[in-house]
Amino acid sequence: MHGATKVVVIGFAAASMTWVSGCVIPLSEPFKNQFSGAWHQTAKLDCGSYERIIADDIRELVFRVEGSTATPEYRFTLTYTPFETYVDYWGSYAFDEESQAISFVADAGNYIPEDIQLDNGTYTLITLESGISELEIRDMSFGGHGEPDLTLCGYVFERYAD
């Protein structure tokens, strides 16, 4: 098997590996960006004031990068109540670091709320003194899980620890 290439799947990422003298050596690390990983909602943002209101409706928002560094595909999954492999909906996202614009497209899902508004949002990504990463997304809605929330104008997410 000397020189043969293997693919090892770890969660959503695949790393290319090669077999050399009885050892598996990674050829490259999985491609990531500042959003990569799993996040959970800690607050919603009130319209107008953007006041933070404690909320945890979205238990899992996962960002990943597929493809290659030359042609990355930015993908996400959103789940209100995680259970085994269940996901409410999934799709793609795009962002602009300079303007901090972000938008999502729901490609498919098990449950896609009728009141989603996934384009023309903005984001702020900060690392708190405690080392915790926080993502604030404004002026968009992932939709309600049940009744629409007309007072919702954004979200605050915290990255799950690795």
Q: Can you count the beta strands?
A: 12
Largest sheet: 8 strands, antiparallel, barrel
| CATH architecture descriptor text of the largest domain | Beta Barrel
If helices are DSSP runs of H or I spanning 4 or more residues, what is the number of helices? 0
Spatial order of the strands forming the largest sheet: 4-6-7-8-9-10-11-12
Number of domains: 2
End-to-end gap:
33 Å
Average pLDDT across residues? Answer: 81
Q: In terms of structural class, how would the helical and strand content be classed?
A: mainly beta
- The parts where pLDDT drops under 50 for at least 5 residues are 1-29
Quick one: CATH class of the largest domain?
Answer: Mainly Beta
Gyration radius, rounded: 18 Å
Share of residues in helices: under 10%
What does this molecule look like?
The protein is an all-beta fold. The chain has 2 domains: 1-30, no CATH class; 31-159, Lipocalin. Helices cover 0% and strands 52% of the residues. The chain is built from no helices and 12 strands. The strands form 2 sheets. It has an 8-stranded antiparallel β-barrel. It has a 3-stranded antiparallel β-sheet with strand order 1-2-3, with no helix packed on it. It is globular and about 40 Å long. Residues 1-29 have low confidence and may be disordered.
